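Researcher: Next entry in the queue.
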Amino acid sequence: MTYHQPRRTAVFLIVAMGAICGCDSGKTYAPSANLERVKDIRAAFKTVSSDTQQAAVVVANPTGFATLRGVFRVDGDVPAAELLVVNKDVEVCAPGGRSIVSEEVTVSDSGELANVLIYATNVRDEWAHEAARPGNTEPVSFDQKECRFLTRVTAIQATQPLQIFNSDSVGHNTKLAPRANTPFDQTVPAGSQPLTYQASAEEREPFTVVCAIHPWMKAWLITRKNSYFAVTAADGSFEIPNLPAGVELEFRAWQERVKFLQNVTVNENSEKWKKGKFTHTLENDEVRELTVVVAASELK
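Model: Structure for this entry, 300 residues:
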């Protein structure tokens, strides 16, 4: 008689099982569990699991406070600033027929770079010094004169009211284009009381402020949760005090022409700041100095 393949397989398995179990088919062998040992093993696994979970949530705490400060400089010659077309309210916007140039890249005669924004991105609320913690409600003035925003890059806490002034004898329109907050687009008549813009959320990067009446006017604004930010002055200097010490802090550096700075030299060492990010762990009471050099070619 001829067997089909499945029946051959079944017979083979039966024979194999018999060989494994031995010739005495009358005895049945079953493993016997050591219940006490099982309990010990389970308890050990629970302990390891609990320790691992606790270790995962342990976060280093600050050891005090410190300061990060420094200067941004440009290496090389930056192209001459673009001449802007002023074709409205010329007597107010360009008194005496003076030329108006772009402020996208502002470099001093000795090479310092102004209007670079530096801000910390990962400071926990409980880490913040009382001078920088969230909740600041002090108003910040934002003015315009001779058809130019007097502050090119402004950084404030999201809880701070921005008071928008007009120091010109002609009307202006102030249009803010945030990503996380409600847009703002209002006219500020000459001689009027300031308008108030109130944000409600933190922005990840600056957004534009423009004037629809005088389209060459432009500035930038960022709202942050705390006050760990700075904008370089005309001499390229900046300072962020009262930063948490003893924990790794992440910063971002932004400049209007290139947005997030990436290829830089810091204290004579070449660095690559991916999307403008760099980190520092400061020591208690330390004042860390940075000299950041940006090649002129990066700003073209």
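Model: The helical segments are 5-21, 35-57, 90-93.
Researcher: Noted, moving on.
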